Amino acid sequence: MTRTERDSMGEMSLPDDVYYGIQTVRAIDNFKISGLKPLPTFVDACLLIKKATALVNAELGCIPVGMGMAIAAAADEILDGALRDQFVVDVYQAGAGTSHHMNINEVLANRALEILGDVKGNYQNVNPNDHVNYGQSTNDVIPTAIRIGALLALHHVLFPALANLNEQLRIKAIAFAGIVKSGRTHLQDAVPVRLGDEFQAYAQIISDHVRRIHQAASDLKTLGLGGSASGTGLNTHPQYCDRVAEKLSEITGFELTSASNLMAAMQSMAPFVNVSGAIRNLAQDTCKIANDLRLMDSGPKTGLREIMLPPVQPGSSIMPGKYNPVIAEMTNMVCYQVIGYDTAIAFAAQAGQLELNVMMPLIAYDLIHSIEILGQAIDTLATKCIRGITAVEDRCLAYAEGSLSLVTALNTHIGYLNAADVAKESLATGKSLRQVVLDKGLMTEEKLAEVLNLEQMSRPNG
């Protein structure tokens, strides 16, 4: 069974069982690029916008009430999981996202027709352009969808993951509070620290990133929806902008407002660059933490082996008994991808001309995907790695006691140059720092024991 649809370029037959229409079919044919389809979260954002606009336009008398309710009901069905396979346009597509936008409009129109007891394709009764898209344009819908999609991804994926990571790090900070280990700077011995304090520092770093991301995300709550084609609001009801922002707030739970300058909100990709930069910043520190974990677990015989990451799968196809830090390695890879996405977003954001940025489909995919994959990676890191970390206490203590940097504590007692000579002699002869100091008669045994107290030296601010 087929049906015939017509657009401004002519007629085309398409299978009657599909809910998308002629413009989507043209896009499928034109953009056989990556096989990547729109992210579910981005589809959700578009559906939420279409639901809100349909209800507001019906309330304002711009479309019939029954039609508006049917479009909103169709959006709800899809948000609940129906027809998800109908959103088929490649990520790399028509500039600004017109192809994806029409895919959304067509699916909603055809499902609304069915809800009203009509047949798919009978667009004189529910039209993708004239009704589902009333008072809207790709140019204001897509940047709004990026905002809503990013907010959804942050609140449903990334923020819960960061809360989990922070909790697991703080649990380890308490568990490891009394374990003294060698500090390291430049990958060389440094004064002793406590393993628990290292994990407490990681937790603070993550907390700081949560604050920064929340701050960056606040700009996403100002919408250009209602600017229609070029920011002038052509073909919209005078009350539409504020009413649709209120309706979207009600539907999403986010405190959304209409921008004071719709043209600016549509043109500038700055809010997305700002959020992407905050996500990249988080990725960089997350990558550093993952690297630290891998380094502290290196070995088991020929590395540091101060901690043990939980083994989750065999590590080699040829070396029996080998386990690798695979969760931390995966985290590194995701972080690198996020950093790459941020670069792409920055280039795309500056590529707008006059009233429109045509690179929005790339920004939409890369920003939302960054948030979601980093959130999923962080949650996995917290749950499958950090939660199960154990400390190798005797190895930590041995490194701390054997570190030449303990000599730093002698500076205020014997002077920097004398302390340097002690370190050099200890390294050359194999004698302990204590023995060299006593042999040189630089300090009494009692005073030396007091100064080289590892517990005291590794205590923060003490």
From TrEMBL:
Domain Fumarate lyase N-terminal: 10-340
Pfam families for the chain: FumaraseC_C (PF10415), Lyase_1 (PF00206)
Family annotation (InterPro entries): Aspartate_Ammonia-Lyase, Fumarase/histidase_N, Fumarase_C_C, Fumarate_lyase_CS, Fumarate_lyase_fam, Fumarate_lyase_N, L-Aspartase-like
CDD domains hit by this protein: Aspartase (cd01357)
Keywords, ordered alphabetically: Lyase
Residue stretches making up the Fumarase C C-terminal domain: 406-457
Protein name (record): Aspartate ammonia-lyase
Organism whose genome encodes this protein: Pseudanabaena yagii GIHE-NHR1
